[in-house]
């Protein structure tokens, strides 16, 4: 008989919980920012985020695709390549991400003291 996992702490059914789940991942926000700024190919993204492994970036891009924040276009030809772009849903999130970034920059000195 298989054991089934039962969540001890129920998920909150609110917007904050969903956005947290969708954006959870070290590189997701920066991936969205780079894609919004026109860096759309996987290799370009990897070069711009050298601290992240390609496997992790591919995984997080896959999650952003699953959550319909980005779309993926495959170009056939002599050399096949892929480009990502924001969906309407992803574009609507960029305002929130940019505001959070501004808040972080406005309070960066205090945050540096408290975030380790």
From TrEMBL:
<dbReference type="InterPro" id="IPR036388">
    <property type="entry name" value="WH-like_DNA-bd_sf"/>
</dbReference>
<dbReference type="GO" id="GO:0003677">
    <property type="term" value="F:DNA binding"/>
</dbReference>
<keyword id="KW-0805">Transcription regulation</keyword>
<dbReference type="Pfam" id="PF01638">
    <property type="entry name" value="HxlR"/>
</dbReference>
<feature type="domain" description="HTH hxlR-type">
    <location>
        <begin position="14"/>
        <end position="112"/>
    </location>
</feature>
<keyword id="KW-0238">DNA-binding</keyword>
<keyword id="KW-0804">Transcription</keyword>
<protein>
    <submittedName>
        <fullName>Transcriptional regulator, HxlR family</fullName>
    </submittedName>
</protein>
<dbReference type="InterPro" id="IPR002577">
    <property type="entry name" value="HTH_HxlR"/>
</dbReference>
<dbReference type="InterPro" id="IPR036390">
    <property type="entry name" value="WH_DNA-bd_sf"/>
</dbReference>
């Amino acid at each position: 008989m298989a054991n089934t996992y039962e969540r001890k702490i129920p998920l909150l059914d609110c917007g904050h919980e969903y956005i947290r789940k969708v954006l959870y991942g070290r590189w997701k926000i920066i991936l969205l920012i780079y894609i919004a700024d026109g860096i759309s190919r996987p290799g370009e993204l990897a070069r711009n985020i050298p601290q992240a492994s390609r496997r992790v970036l591919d995984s997080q891009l896959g999650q952003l695709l699953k959550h319909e924040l980005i779309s993926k276009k495959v170009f056939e030809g002599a050399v096949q390549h892929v480009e990502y772009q924001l969906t309407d849903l992803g574009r609507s999130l960029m305002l929130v991400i940019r505001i959070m970034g501004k808040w972080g920059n406005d309070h960066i000195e205090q945050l540096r003291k408290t975030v380790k």
